[in-house]
Amino acid sequence: MTRIAVLGGTGYTGGNIVREAAARGHHVTAYSRTAPAQPVEGVHSIQASFLEEGAVAAAVAGQDVVVEALAPRGELAGQLEGIVGDLARLAAEQGARLVVVGGWSGLRPAEGAPRFVEAGDTPPQFKAEAEEMVRALEWLERSAPEELDWLFVSPAQAYGSHNPGEALGRYRIGGSVALVDEAGRSAVSGADFALAVVDEIDRHEHRGHINVAS
Fold first, then answer.
1. Which helix (H) or strand (E) holds 172?
2. The pTM is what?
């Protein structure tokens, strides 16, 4: 049984990961600013703001894996890169694995090509969030402690609560180049994305930046 903390555990991504991890018998602690509308059996839920002193350290303490699934909006706008930096330092000190959930815009259409957000392919209403997540990724690539075991996971383009998709029970994993199907589409359901993340926690097959699509 793995001890897993999920930051943003009542959001769309975090909630799916919490349910999948708990169903496998892992010891899951879900952190969020609000109480869960539908508590998951066996999951320890904690309400916290990660702008409060000591909150990040408390979330990492005693965990085997820390999943950061926070959205850089609201009070966290402009704060996420710093939170990821703090998580990285604390996880490295305690020997925990850090899994950061990013977005499609941090991927590339081809090896060596600009990221989608750099090429202007991100809708204006999401650009600030996408740029902040990319800054967090690039900080990990450039400055993460050498001993840190980290993974940055980007979902497919068609992903989110507005487009939940169908749970297929399968997925594909790629690197920093976006996975697309024969028609050039990229999609994954929330359930299948969570399946991929928890499979990776269980199997520990990748490091660095990966992306998940059906």
1. strand 172-174
2. 0.96
